[in-house]
Amino acid sequence: MALLAFAANSVLCRLALGSELIDAGSFTVIRLLSGAIVLGLIVLFKQRKNSISSHGSWKGAFYLFAYAACFSFAYRYLDTASGALILFASVQLTMLGISLLQRNRFNRYEWCGILMALSGLVYLLLPSATTPAWQGFLLMAVAGVAWGGYSLLGRGSSNPLADTCSNFVRTIPLCLPLIIWALSDLSANFSASSEGVMYAVLSGAVASGIGYSIWYTALRGLSATVASVSQLSVPIIAALGGVIFVGESLSLQLLIASVLTLGGVGLVIMAKKLVPPSGR
Q: Which of 1, 2, 140, 237 has the largest CB neighbor count within 10 A?
């Protein structure tokens, strides 16, 4: 369910920004605000005794804001599937890199799977007519690093719903620069359409707010390695969503990159069963 929510965010963002129904700054602000409102209402209804301020963290809020902002601006340059693949490849690099720094060792199958998954990203970025714009790639890579940090924080969550809600609420003051930027952009006669606002609200209230709560819940039962590489299945879901809802086409290059990436994901997930601890 969480991975479906991640893919839905890519599709909704692309629908809104690809058609210029709303600017990236406004989309980010509405997304975070609607997520905070919906989660706040759910927490107040279900967990009245728990204070929102006692959960989450400013670090988590910063990661969430950095991810959401870079994610939105990146989709001005990327199609749905390419954006999702760059995002979650960056997530994998971040989470696995931190895991290595914490002196967690990988066996040979895990290394093969990691290299195979990353080769899919490299192949996607090879010079061709469909190579993503460097601005979009850089922004989405930063979004992936931020999301990787946010996911690692979530592994220690004892109350996923309250923590997610608190993190969303804490992003509100961080949104002020984007609000000022969006207001200044009105001078260019750019305004958000009702359809663009609707996509931003759906992204924030449903795909982000509720989806991230589910993700924080799932993280408690996943290792950092499996949590990182499992997210690389999202580009396939997002690609199908882009074809169905956005009218995008699937290129051969993207299909090959996705097969390599998903093959690497499967290998990492199965690695522990293929080699016993003594075979590391």
A: 140
